[in-house]
Design a protein that fits this description.
The chain is α/β, with parallel strands linked by helices. It has helices at about 25-45, 115-120, 125, 150-155, 155-160, 170-185, 200-215, 250-260, 265-270, 280-285, 305-325, 340-355; strands spanning about 1-10, 55-60, 70-80, 85-90, 105-110, 130-135, 190-200, 220-225, 235-240, 245-250, 290-300, 330-335. α6 (about 170-185) crosses α7 (about 200-215). The N and C termini lie far apart (about 45 Å).
Amino acid sequence: MKVTEYKVLGKLPDPFQMNNGRRVKSLNDWNMRRHEIIKTAVEMQYGAILPEPEFIEIVRINPAYFYADALVNYRVTTGRRDHPVSFTMCIKLPSDFEYGHRYPAVIDGDMCWSPANQLENMQHFTNHGIMFVTFNRTELVYDCAFKKTREAGLKGPLFDCYKDSGAGVIQGWAWGFSRCVDALLQTDLLDDSMIAFTGFSRGAKCALLAGALDGRATIVNPVETNGLGAACFRTHLTAINDEGIEKRSETLADMVVNFPQWITPALESYAMKEEELPFDSHYLKALVAPRTLLVGEAENDIWGNSIGSYQTNLAAKEVWKFYGNPENILWYYRKGNHAHEEIDYAMLANVMRHRLTGEPLNDDFGKTPFKKEDFPPIHDYACPVRND
């Protein structure tokens, strides 16, 4: 990738600056600030947060026995008692499965479009004592990407259940990750000390949002979110890819035209004036701290604005520094284009096994395919010194 134009629309805002003008000085302050950030980085982007369900029930829908390397399917029913919704959750058990033992899990919401890819790559987890859990998020909210109005795109059983909730599509899909955790807790299979959320592209936006809101996710792994996720509203990029084709990065204006059902009218109003936004993607990432955030990008994914993702990683890292564990925000760049490749699964598995067994981390974490000095930080704040 050869960058031909790089435009910065202002400095990234300081996540430690509270609405009352004070700056965060303690963890108690930060906990209050998190609620303020949710109002912007979450609700202004994706709409109102959907409520917790009134109930959750699971039914095993394939043979009622467990064995090593089994594929176990559940029907999950949840939502409101008077208007339930349901979806399928599929579990690939570890190859060393023993009945009565509990296992860490990775949850992937992309069963709707990459089941074959998932099956091919589950062994990175299941061969190492980790369950791979997948669900079809479009059973909850339809993927009406071809609909060019917000109202036409808000379709699916979940929006029938929670009418007039104010939530957008990404918010609805993210809700499914948390319901999978609820369901897994009923199976006696889950070791809830390690749960990873992952997804690719629009599924990555959901995984990041779900992980920002659900503290039970100990590792959050968005893979190439493009805009409205891990990238950066305030950076615009034009570059020549490895095939010699010049392309540009996705902007908020593009999302307003292409995916209005994913965002809110409030966010739409900042199209073409992103420098006025009261947040950027580093705020969303910061909501994951002090848990582990692993951001995956592809070198040739110009539309995905991988340099913007790097900038918001740097800016968000100050929050992990505030907690005292900056090593818990990680990123990597693999070669290739916009896709969920085997190496992406392997990098997540490496982080999980590092946490579980002490396996060394891959040397590629933290590296970039561009010279860092060519793209200096676009934030000018540092984490406060804590007084607690």
